[in-house]
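Incident log, support desk, overnight shift.

02:14 A customer reports that sequence design results differ from what the structure should imply. Their input is reproduced verbatim below. On-call engineer (initials T.W.) acknowledged and began investigating.
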């Protein structure tokens, strides 16, 4: 492992914000010596306060912590207004549509577009500070306007990824008690229109708290309009005033909710608040991607996920950068599309997920060599561990063995990166997220709260609250405490546990080993096994189901379902039955949760107390030999029966 180490590019390091490991260590030491001084200093330097804060950190009601109490600011003003003096004609967003249509939106234009939408929401729809707005949008600039317009008037946005089904959208609307939904008729994918508005119609079929739906007309396909509820963005926006005073917000006023899967129950609304979130979004943009004034930065995520929130919209705009937004898919019209865009826009930082790298590698190995990629300086990955072949190709063929790869480890709940290399400082190792960022007290602990030994798998924790830490689970204080602060204690005090396992190597580097709970990571997206199981159980023929993750070449992990059918409904046709099961999933969650494998079994391996032993099911799915102790099972013979059923499906 130690041999496989890549030092930062010396030329790059000269001008980097953090130039070497000494500088990294100095920052980390400063944070350890005076935690509040460290964060307070950056909060003063990086944010424009309407009223300065009185107090850096209040932990008296831990884990309900407060950062920068007394401070007033507005996040949309951080992202737009404060750049108008020096950057009004700079590109804020460069948009490329699926079909190759382009738009460049300057900071001044962004200011007008956001203000107009903010006025529309406030004056026409009556949206007030603290009310929730659900955004169900394709990757078009209006999605960013919608986020920033909510921030401007103090409304809390909750983006639902466009791939979620009507049921999933409805659940999120109901949980957040949203007043407004902002959507689009649809958009384009692989040169064809696809639709979103009909999904919203279906989600709102039964009564909810939603009063108004605002529709951006993007692909101009036919949609139905519900009188008194549905309004055209394109029409209403024309009459709006171009200025809108930003609402004065407390540092701890909520900025947004983003629903994410946990190990149990339904998805939880992760809440992020204003000042701490935007501070760390900006700082990590500066440190981890080292974006400079004239750089062009591209993150390929979707705004429906946290990566899109922090690293397409909030982080880049907070620092006054140029951020690229892309509607299409990276392999269309061919697997050279991203590299063509890198050449055309002279992209300097490129940030994507290992699953995309694997697809691009597999389907277009030689594509990077056809384009001029010399503008690239930093390459990023996020969402799941990156495997060595994908890393090597990314490093050599895309980055020309000259660019640092920042393997950024973080979560919806952490708001921004927590463990990551710094491109000008950290010697990198393939597949390794390396070290906690300055200010983040990230530690691998064992179950007793002691620091894990080198080479010993432990729990990835953060031992002190940091500014962009999750502030709550919407409407469920108990779940917030139990989900994140219930498992690990250090020196008797609960600490934030990520749910991931991790290992230190001999250099003190951190490698993330994946979730320790029942969450699977499909193409970098989090899926709770409980959620998928609940969906499958809605099929009338299903008696019992257990879902586990199984390694998958492209997706990282695939979904493997073991299903016990109801006896009196014996299967006539297994292929049809699998289709029917996947249709239920499509309806309840969306295509992202479709099963890769479905195996019908006569029973599940349960302990005498009725608990399903998933470890065994995971081993069988992988085709591993069963080494676990099966003596506590109610019926140990079921293991061999299931293994045979899986074998016969292969
Ligand atoms: C940002 C994001 C979070 C989960 C996380 C972990 C996995 C993210 C990773 C990584 C290994 C990395 N994860 N980054 N695993 N190396 N660099 O993905 O947020 O959707 O909430 O997922 O993704 O398991 O717990 P989210």
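02:41 Re-run completed on a clean worker. Output:
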């Amino acid at each position: 492992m130690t041999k496989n180490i890549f030092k930062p590019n010396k030329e790059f390091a000269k001008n980097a914000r953090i130039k070497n490991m000494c500088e990294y260590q100095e920052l980390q030491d400063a944070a350890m010596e005076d935690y509040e001084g460290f964060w307070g200093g950056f909060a003063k330097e990086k944010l424009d306060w309407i009223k300065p804060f009185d107090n850096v950190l209040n932990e008296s009601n831990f884990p309900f912590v407060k950062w920068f109490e007394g401070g007033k600011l507005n996040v949309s003003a951080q992202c737009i207004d404060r750049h108008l003096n020096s950057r009004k004609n700079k590109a804020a967003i460069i948009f490329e549509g699926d079909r190759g249509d382009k738009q460049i939106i300057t900071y001044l234009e962004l200011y007008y577009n956001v203000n107009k939408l903010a006025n529309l929401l406030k004056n026409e729809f009556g949206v007030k500070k603290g009310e929730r707005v659900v955004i169900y949008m394709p990757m078009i600039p209006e999605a960013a306007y919608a986020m920033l317009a909510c921030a401007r008037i103090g409304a809390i946005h909750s983006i639902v990824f466009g791939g979620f089904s009507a049921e999933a959208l409805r659940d999120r609307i109901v949980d957040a008690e949203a007043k407004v939904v902002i959507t689009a008729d649809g958009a384009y994918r692989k040169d064809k229109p696809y639709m979103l508005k009909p999904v919203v119609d279906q989600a709102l079929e039964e009564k909810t708290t939603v009063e108004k739906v605002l529709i951006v007309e993007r692909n101009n396909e036919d949609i139905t309009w519900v009188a008194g509820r549905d309004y055209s963005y394109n029409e209403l926006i024309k009459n709006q005033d171009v200025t809108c005073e930003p609402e004065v917000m407390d540092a701890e006023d909520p900025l947004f909710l983003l629903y994410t899967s946990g190990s149990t129950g339904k998805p939880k609304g992760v809440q992020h608040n204003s000042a701490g979130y935007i501070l760390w979004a900006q700082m990590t943009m500066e440190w981890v991607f080292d974006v400079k004034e004239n750089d062009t930065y591209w993150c390929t995520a979707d705004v429906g996920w946290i990566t899109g929130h922090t690293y397409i919209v909030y982080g880049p705009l907070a620092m006054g950068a140029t951020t690229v937004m892309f509607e299409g898919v990276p392999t269309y019209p061919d697997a050279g599309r991203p590299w063509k865009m890198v050449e055309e826009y002279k992209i300097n930082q490129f940030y994507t997920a290992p699953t995309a790298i694997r697809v691009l590698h597999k389907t277009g190995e030689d594509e990077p060599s056809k384009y001029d990629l010399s503008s690239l300086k930093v390459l990023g990955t996020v969402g799941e561990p990156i495997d060595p072949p994908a890393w090597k190709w990314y490093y050599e063929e895309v980055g020309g063995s000259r660019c640092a790869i920042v393997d950024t480890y973080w979560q919806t709940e952490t708001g921004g990166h927590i463990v990551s290399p710094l491109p000008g400082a950290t010697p990198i190792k393939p597949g390794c997220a390396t070290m906690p960022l300055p200010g983040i007290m990230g530690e691998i602990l064992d179950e007793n709260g002691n620091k894990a030994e080198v080479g010993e798998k432990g729990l990835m924790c953060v031992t002190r609250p940091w500014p962009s830490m999750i502030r709550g689970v919407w409407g469920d204080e108990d779940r917030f405490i139990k989900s994140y602060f219930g498992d690990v204690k250090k020196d008797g005090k609960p600490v934030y546990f990520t749910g991931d396992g991790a290992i230190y190597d001999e250099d003190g580097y951190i490698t993330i080993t994946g979730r320790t709970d029942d969450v699977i990571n499909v193409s970098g997206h989090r899926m709770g096994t409980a959620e998928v199981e609940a969906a499958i159980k809605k099929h009338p023929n299903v008696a019992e189901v257990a879902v586990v993750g199984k390694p998958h070449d492209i997706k990282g992990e695939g979904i493997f379902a073991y299903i016990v059918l109801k006896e009196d409904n014996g299967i006539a046709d297994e292929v049809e039955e699998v289709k029917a099961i996947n249709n239920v999933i499509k309806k309840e969650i969306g295509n992202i949760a479709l099963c890769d494998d479905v195996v019908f079994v006569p029973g599940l391996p349960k302990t005498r107390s009725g608990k399903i032993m998933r470890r065994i099911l995971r081993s069988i799915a992988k085709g591993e030999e069963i080494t676990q102790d099966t003596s506590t099972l109610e019926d140990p013979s079921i293991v061999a029966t299931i293994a045979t059923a899986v074998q016969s499906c292969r």
